[in-house]
Amino acid sequence: xxxxxxxxxxxxxxxxxxxRGHGRTRGGGPDPDGARAADVIARxxxxxxxxxxxxxxxxxxxxxxxxxxxxxSLRSQGMPVQLSxxxxxxxxxxxxxxxxxxxxxxxxxxxxxxxxxxxxxxxRDAGRWPVFAQQATEAGVRAVYAVPLGSGAACxxxxxxxxDRPGALTDRQLHVARIVAGVMTVALMxxxxxxxxxxxxxxxxxxxxxxxxxxxxxxxxxMIMAQLGVAADDALARLRADAFARGRxxxxxxxxxxxxxxxxxx
Length: 266
Known about the structure:
This protein is an alpha+beta fold. The protein has helices at 32-45, 53-64, 88-100, 104-111, 123-128, 130-138, 171-189, 212-228, 232-245, 250-258; strands at 69-74, 81-85, 115-117, 143-149, 157-163.
């Protein structure tokens, strides 16, 4: 569910990218929420190696906001690329959305705007993503807030926030979430790219080490392609369908395929 104000516009004190201007409001007045967020972010990432920053920022989001977990994923062909999470629970929720190809983070990528699922137990939000809502509540999450990294056509992924009880973010909390997402976007774009050419589906080698789970899924997809003689999209669809039917994540099934515990036949 989107916030009542236009989610495509900037929040008060946000100049549009969420990463700058967080110490002052648009009118030039003080922005105490932005200033506190900036202090916590600076403390949270101090001394971190570039590849550690996304994970640190997920932890910062949990410190700043009334949520129990956070994860960050990049937009990608096929499945989102999960980079970091603040906890195993948050990582699992991210994997559920990737497996289903549905959920608030998928909608936020498509819309290029925040998607606030304030109550996954009943009503509109539960009906919009019924399977995800059921699995999320079984995992102890009642609300999910997905904030895009970038916006519109320039959306590169999402910062996903998980809460164990229903409820909305206030305008001030959404402002802080956008600040963290803006800093996350800058941090990801600043990661060293290295000198090697692009790899599968245009994915840069700078993701190596951060996107190991994603690599396992696509290794399994390659094996399924060989087993069934199908294209990559069809192999990924079979992997997802098998995971859904067995109540598992795509990553779990992928690991079984790689270990030869699961084989796909026609």
